[in-house]
């Protein structure tokens, strides 16, 4: 049973999207990566609509079993944090509207999961993403590589929504099947 | 030509909505006020979906010519700012998806427009909202009164989107008609 996870690195100018398939033995393969862009000179409401539609199109095309969104902190990057938070709201809502379980992951969780080191730099993360996915080069742009790292982290740490958000959402049939397969693979 | 303006005071636990009709002579009448609530114990994605659906239902029911959303600042209320920003993203996107012009207004703009004093306290704003709308009592809860104040401010300050956001969105036919009526009323 393959689990498909879609990661979203929220951003208003470039919103990274990465999709991976994860096997019960934790082997990961690349499905898709890219960014949705919006024009910084457009009004904020049009930018949010553009990004929201792009995210929804990617979700509907790739039909993930689970979605991971990077957790945004108010303390960081005051200049861009409002747009990032607005995009994360669109991403979370899009997941809930489709009853796809969604989890939030912090940057340090993602770094630790992918490189083994929570304070790894961006280059180390990108190098490990390429290695895990058996790519010759790190994916570009960086926002797409970050979204892939997020998806890999979420899959490896258990993509069940309860684990990630503390929420009470039930597992989907696909997730239950995957969890059972994962348990079986560890015997 | 009456201009209908819908104000949104974004919030994750209580999101205020206020709708007013404004005549060319600047007289304002109440159409609707209320709040959309979400359960603080629910997962964030479900809360955002609940608030988003409630906002969209109110927009579709009242069919405003213009929407005003309170501008959120990253510096204020660190504990709640992320949820507030996420809801403001949903509100802006909902307006853009319906091609309804939307503008952002700061709290001090709203206070100045409604009370004549940019540092007015909440009680003064609520008292003036009741007076402007010829209500016996200030609307409750405060989030709904804030949304009405926002709608009144936006209408009085010129609800054209270009004025409020600096964006290049064209005026709708209703707005052009209202702008013409407003010019005529000043002759």
UniProtKB/TrEMBL annotation, chains A, B:
<feature type="active site">
    <location>
        <position position="70"/>
    </location>
</feature>
<dbReference type="Pfam" id="PF02075">
    <property type="entry name" value="RuvC"/>
</dbReference>
<dbReference type="InterPro" id="IPR002176">
    <property type="entry name" value="X-over_junc_endoDNase_RuvC"/>
</dbReference>
<dbReference type="InterPro" id="IPR036397">
    <property type="entry name" value="RNaseH_sf"/>
</dbReference>
<feature type="binding site">
    <location>
        <position position="70"/>
    </location>
    <ligand>
        <name>Mg(2+) 2</name>
    </ligand>
</feature>
<dbReference type="GO" id="GO:0003677">
    <property type="term" value="F:DNA binding"/>
</dbReference>
<keyword id="KW-0479">Metal-binding</keyword>
<dbReference type="GO" id="GO:0006310">
    <property type="term" value="P:DNA recombination"/>
</dbReference>
<feature type="active site">
    <location>
        <position position="9"/>
    </location>
</feature>
<keyword id="KW-0233">DNA recombination</keyword>
<keyword id="KW-0238">DNA-binding</keyword>
<comment type="similarity">
    <text>Belongs to the RuvC family.</text>
</comment>
<keyword id="KW-0234">DNA repair</keyword>
<dbReference type="InterPro" id="IPR012337">
    <property type="entry name" value="RNaseH-like_sf"/>
</dbReference>
<keyword id="KW-0540">Nuclease</keyword>
<dbReference type="InterPro" id="IPR020563">
    <property type="entry name" value="X-over_junc_endoDNase_Mg_BS"/>
</dbReference>
<feature type="binding site">
    <location>
        <position position="143"/>
    </location>
    <ligand>
        <name>Mg(2+) 1</name>
    </ligand>
</feature>
<keyword id="KW-0227">DNA damage</keyword>
<dbReference type="GO" id="GO:0005737">
    <property type="term" value="C:cytoplasm"/>
</dbReference>
<dbReference type="GO" id="GO:0000287">
    <property type="term" value="F:magnesium ion binding"/>
</dbReference>
<dbReference type="GO" id="GO:0006281">
    <property type="term" value="P:DNA repair"/>
</dbReference>
<keyword id="KW-0963">Cytoplasm</keyword>
<dbReference type="GO" id="GO:0048476">
    <property type="term" value="C:Holliday junction resolvase complex"/>
</dbReference>
<keyword id="KW-0460">Magnesium</keyword>
<feature type="active site">
    <location>
        <position position="143"/>
    </location>
</feature>
<comment type="subunit">
    <text>Homodimer which binds Holliday junction (HJ) DNA. The HJ becomes 2-fold symmetrical on binding to RuvC with unstacked arms; it has a different conformation from HJ DNA in complex with RuvA. In the full resolvosome a probable DNA-RuvA(4)-RuvB(12)-RuvC(2) complex forms which resolves the HJ.</text>
</comment>
<protein>
    <recommendedName>
        <fullName>Crossover junction endodeoxyribonuclease RuvC</fullName>
        <ecNumber>3.1.21.10</ecNumber>
    </recommendedName>
</protein>
<dbReference type="GO" id="GO:0008821">
    <property type="term" value="F:crossover junction DNA endonuclease activity"/>
</dbReference>
<keyword id="KW-0255">Endonuclease</keyword>
<feature type="binding site">
    <location>
        <position position="9"/>
    </location>
    <ligand>
        <name>Mg(2+) 1</name>
    </ligand>
</feature>
<comment type="function">
    <text>The RuvA-RuvB-RuvC complex processes Holliday junction (HJ) DNA during genetic recombination and DNA repair. Endonuclease that resolves HJ intermediates. Cleaves cruciform DNA by making single-stranded nicks across the HJ at symmetrical positions within the homologous arms, yielding a 5'-phosphate and a 3'-hydroxyl group; requires a central core of homology in the junction. The consensus cleavage sequence is 5'-(A/T)TT(C/G)-3'. Cleavage occurs on the 3'-side of the TT dinucleotide at the point of strand exchange.</text>
</comment>
<keyword id="KW-0378">Hydrolase</keyword>
């Amino acid at each position: 049973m393959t689990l498909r996870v879609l990661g979203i690195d929220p951003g208003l100018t470039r919103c990274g999207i990465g999709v991976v398939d994860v096997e019960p033995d934790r082997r990961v393969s690349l499905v898709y990566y890219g960014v949705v862009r919006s024009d910084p000179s457009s009004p904020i409401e049009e930018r949010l609509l553009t990004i929201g539609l792009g995210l929804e199109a990617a979700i509907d095309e790739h039909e993930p079993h689970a979605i991971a969104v990077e957790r945004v902190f108010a303390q960081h990057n005051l200049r861009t944090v409002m747009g990032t938070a607005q995009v994360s709201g669109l991403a979370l809502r899009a997941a809930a509207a489709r009853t796809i379980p969604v989890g939030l992951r912090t940057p340090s969780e993602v770094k630790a999961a992918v490189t083994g080191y929570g304070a790894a730099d961006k280059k180390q993360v990108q190098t490990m993403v390429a290695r895990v996915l058996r790519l010759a080069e790190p994916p570009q742009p960086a926002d797409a590589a970050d979204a892939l790292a997020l998806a890999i982290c979420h899959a490896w740490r258990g993509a069940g929504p309860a684990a990630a958000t503390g929420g009470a959402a039930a597992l989907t049939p696909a997730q239950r099947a995957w969890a059972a397969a994962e348990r079986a693979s560890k015997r």
